[in-house]
Amino acid sequence: MVIKMRLRIVYWGHACFQLDILDKGITLVFDPFDPVTTGDLSIPEKAADIVLCSHEHFDHANWRPVIKTGGAHLVKFFGEKEVHGIKIIGVKTAHDDAGGRYRGLNSAYLVLVNNTKIIHLGDLGHILNNEQVSMLTQYGRPDILFIPIGSVYTIGPHEALEIINQLNPRAVFPMHYNHPKLNQGIFGHLKTIDDFLKLWKGNVNRFDKNQIELDTNALPSETTVYVLTF
């Protein structure tokens, strides 16, 4: 039986997304950053029942201000765990294309809520191998994919396109790209969202706001890119 799922997705910038599971009253936050070092951006304070951090770097693991009292957090978690009734699978990947030699390891998270499948790739630095693809798609086609596109510290636009083809998600949310509100001394040499969109040949839904609500049963069958403005 297909179960309807209502989600609110809020993009706080960089790799930080807030996922409100409206039917369950549970909020997840992925990869909250340190606002001082990341630039002119804020994060959702005391909002999250669950915080998932792909690795320990300052711009991805500022979980303390975000978590609610009694909430749970995972940092660079590999394996499978149920938290507040939500199944979470952390798939071991690398932050670079040398097996983690230069920037360490990275957790790509698969989150399952009823029949809805959500993937956040963190600071992925390489094309996925067959085992990683199998782990991330073991419950079927992903509904939502959060994917870095900025290059330098992560995969770039070309690699992102290849990974989108590997995973075949319904909805793609690009992240971790250059933006004027980021600290330009650190992130000014990243690729931009427009660099990625110039290569993308599929459908695009672009919004002038940082949040949208989705009915997972109404997601497009053809992979579509969603761009939120933070």
Layout of secondary structure:
Blueprint: E1 6-13, E2 16-21, E3 26-30, H1 35-38, E4 48-53, E5 67-75, E6 79-83, E7 86-94, E8 105-113, E9 116-120, H2 130-136, E10 144-148, H3 157-167, E11 171-175, H4 184-187, H5 193-199, E12 203-206, E13 211-215, E14 224-227
Parallel strand pairs: 3-4, 4-5, 9-10, 10-11, 11-14, 12-14
Antiparallel strand pairs: 1-2, 1-13, 2-3, 6-7, 7-8, 8-9
Helix pairs in contact: 3-5
Overview features:
eight-stranded mixed beta sheet; Metallo-beta-lactamase, Chain A; mainly beta; about 15% helix; about 230 residues; 14 strands; six-stranded mixed beta sheet
The gyration radius over C-alpha positions equals 16 Å
Largest sheet: 8 strands, mixed
User: Which outline best applies?
Assistant: globular
CATH class: Alpha Beta
Tell me the CATH superfamily.
Ribonuclease Z/Hydroxyacylglutathione hydrolase-like
- The number of helical elements comes to 5
Averaging pLDDT over every residue, what do you get?
95
What CATH architecture would you give?
4-Layer Sandwich
Encode the helix/strand succession as letters.
EEEHEEEEEEHEHEHHEEE
